[in-house]
C-alpha cells in the first residue's frame, strides 16, 4: 500500500497548527517535510505527523523549542526520563501559581501588601523584610534604630511574628478610629488622644521622639506604597489629616 502523504492544509486541519509554525519548524530543522515538490509544495508522511504531534505535546508541557529539538533526537525512554523530572518542576510551578492566586485574592480583598506571602520560597525578600532592610539603610546609623533592632532581636522568630501581628492589629484600630474623626479638627482632644495611642504603639519597638515621629508622618504622605494601606481607613484626604494631627501632637509637645 502506498504511504499516504498529507498536505500543509491537511496537517493544519488535523492538528490545528498554523502554516507559519510549520514553515518555522522547517527553517529551524525541527520538523522537515517528508518531501517537497518542484513547485514548493510541502508534504508530510505519517511519521512526520507523529513527530509533529509529539512536538506540540512537549510545547504544551512548556518546553522551549530548543529543548524540544534536543529531545526529538532522544529515544522514547530518554524522553520519558526528562518528562518525569519536568513533572516535578511543573508541580512546583503549580503550587507557586496557587499561592499567587491566593495572594492576589487577598490583595484585591484589601489585605495590605506587607502581610502577603508572595515571596515565600523565593530569593526575593518578603515585603516586611524589604521594609526592614529599607529602614536599616535609612536609619541604621542612628541610636534609635539600633535600639529598635536590639529590642526586636531579643525576640524569637515566633515572638517577632506575634509582636508584629499585635502591632498591626492595634495600628489598624487606631487608624480606623482616626478615620471616624476625619471631619474634626486635627487638634481636637479625641484626635490627639488617638495620636498618643499611635505613638504608644510605635514605642512597642523603639523610642519615638519628635524627629522620628516627623519622619514617619512624612513617609506616610510621600511614599506611595502607603496610599493603598491607608485607603482602607479613610478617603483621599485621610493621609493629610493624619499628617496634620501628628504635627499638632509634636508641636504641642505631647501635652
Give the helix/strand layout.
Layout (H helix, E strand, L loop, with lengths): L5 E2 H8 L3 H9 L7 E2 L5 E3 L1 H15 L4 H7 L4 H33 L18 H13 L3 H11 L3 H24 L8 H14 L7 H13 L2 H6 L7 H14 L4
Antiparallel strand pairs: 1-3, 2-3
Helix pairs in contact: 8-9, 9-12, 10-12
What's a quick, concise take on this entry?
It contains 12 helices and 3 strands, in the order E-H-H-E-E-H-H-H-H-H-H-H-H-H-H. It is mostly helical and 255 residues long.
Keywords:
255 residues; mainly alpha; 3-stranded antiparallel sheet; 12 helices
Would you write up a description of this structure?
With 255 residues, this protein is mainly α. Helices cover 65% and strands 3% of the residues. It has a 3-stranded antiparallel β-sheet with strand order 1-3-2. A hairpin with a 5-residue loop joins strand 2 and strand 3 (42-44). The longest helix has 33 residues, at 76-108. It is elongated, with a radius of gyration of 31 Å. It starts with 5 loop residues before the first strand and ends with a helix.
Helix content: 55-70%
The chain-level mean pLDDT equals 80
Strand order in the sheet with the most strands:
1-3-2
DSSP strand tally: 3
**What's the order of the H and E elements?**
EHHEEHHHHHHHHHH
Coarse structural class = mainly alpha
What is the makeup of the main sheet?
3 strands, antiparallel
* Unreliable runs: 123-140
Q: Sum up the overall morphology in one term.
A: elongated
Rg value: 31 Å
Distance between the termini: 102 Å
* Total of helices: 12
β-strand percent reads: under 5%
